[in-house]
Amino acid sequence: MTARTERTRLLAVALAALLVGAAVGTGLTGLFDGHTADAVDREARPIEGVSDPELVTFESDAAFAEYLDGRPDDAWTGPATTALTGGDDAAVEEDLDDTETAADGSAAVESDAATAPSGGDGGSAPDSEPRHSETNVQEAALDEPAVLKTDGESVYYADYRYTSRWAETSVVDVSDPANPTAVGSIPLSGDLLLADDTLVVLGDDEAAGYDVSDPAEPEERWRTDLAADIDTARLHDGDLYLILVDRPGGDPCPMTPYGDDPVECTDVVRPATPADADAVYTAARVDPETGALESRESVVGSQSLSATYVSENGIYLSYMRSTSGYELRRSFLGTEAGAELLDARARERVAALDDLEISDRAKRVELREILRAWYDRMADDERREARQAFEEGVREHAAANHRNLTTTGIVRIDIEGDLAADASGEVPGTPLNQFSMDEHEDHLRIATTIPRTHGVDSENDVYVLDSDLETVGSVTGLGVDERIYSVRFEGDEGYVVTYREIDPFYTLDLSEPTDPTVDGELKLPGFSEYLHPLEDDLVLGVGQEDRHPKATLFDVTDPEDPIELDSEIFADERYSDVSRTHTAFLQDEAHGVFFMPGNEASYVVDYEGGELEEVAHVDVGGPGARAMYVGDSLYVFGEDEVVVLDERTWDETTRLDL
């Protein structure tokens, strides 16, 4: 039999094992009897871990399809058994898929959240325009999509959160702040952005722009079909930036995420190394007045355990790279300690797996059978000892390679001129959401969770990357056996909340990029899911305790000794939308208050003097409740009405049906 014939036979049997191995339990056992193979410990098989990924494009449509189909079958793609929920590792010969994660992904436009203080001057001079709130955003110069927008004269409110399908956007005249008037509507609802006299509506499967120079008579300027989901969007310096997510199917090439201009698969950027890519992220610059596509760049990405962050200088996209259960065990068996556990027959069969061009799934099936056959050749006592030694060896190998098992790749798209991917980097772990990243003085800071796996506890890290996205500094080992629940970077300071049973609030000194340090730590019950700097040295945390929304006021005047000044548990509520999206939160610095909605009602809380005091309870709640202010009038929008409060007395002045 020729070498080619033998190889063909091996691959054919491998395919059969893939199809029936799980049902029959035979895998490829017996395939390698008499097969000449070097010992399994012929060469070590280190786990690659963090790399410096070069960015390339695909050579062909077939290469694109193969790359997206090539992610490990047992890759770490979402919350399974986590540091939060606990769980035991299964026996290795019974389950080669016991990898675990410890971070959540984010989905809809509003839910991928971050924030920066909104506010303005207190009151207004008689001859000046009244002050008005803006959407709570991460970067002050970049507006973000939200269901509520105002220019101080008119308000646009999309109430789709209350309905099964998006219906319309209400238009309200607030030129007389104390006496708002409903003046019209737009027959499309979704997340909104207001660019001068153009209201951009980002719907389910379409985007549109409306001329609102006459708010009572809005006119459609453009409408474009969307064949991709909107991950997020930004309005910056008169330009609309859309981040669109394609999930390629059976015939993926080309893709048309926006309008009818296709993206060729050979134009999609990818790392030169394999990644857990199951989607394509397209960053598009669009003229908000016309809807015309001006520039775009497409990059492979991961739908879960990734985040998108946008600064004034660039768009940061991320993807995950993970080590499959098979790769981890095969790597262990390539070490001296692992190889010494097996007998000669098992070593030969394991080594022969390397020569087969088959999927990890097929190799996983065969490795399971090799181990079972190895155990079957032992007496009962010897089998128990061997199984325990193997499982302990894998755990020790996982611990030694913990930060190499799951990594996040980062691609920066430059927004000066034509959009173009101009840098890439990689760090251990996975981010939580857009707050996990922040650009400051030519450096990117990113906070990640290193997932729990194989009995190795989760940990949390913060990395500092330079302008080339190379790591120059790090803080590691925060919140062992916990995961990140919220992050906030503010200048040279950083704040991280981790949680499992208590809520450690960490303060970080990031003033020296190459030597970031933990300044202080404060442990509290409950956890914060959103952090908001209210003013200098005062940070608000919004989260939960005992299944009720909770607000916590932190004094960080001394970063080495953060203090809890006060906290408020909203015992009548089960949920606040602030936990899902920062755009539900509103701060009015002039009056020293903040707004947060609950599932039953909405609340205005005074934070001045270091104490939290509820000053208004509005019987409008639910997932779509939002607030804004014009002058000294606070508007709380609900499903079908808006309530207006006088911020000087907190009395209700009027209600308006929408």
TrEMBL record:
InterPro entries: Beta_propeller_containing (IPR019198), UCP006425_b-propeller (IPR014441). Pfam families: Beta_propel (PF09826). Residues 104-143 are annotated as: Disordered. It comes from the Archaea. This is Secreted protein containing C-terminal beta-propeller domain. The lineage of its organism: Archaea, Methanobacteriati, Methanobacteriota, Stenosarchaea group, Halobacteria.
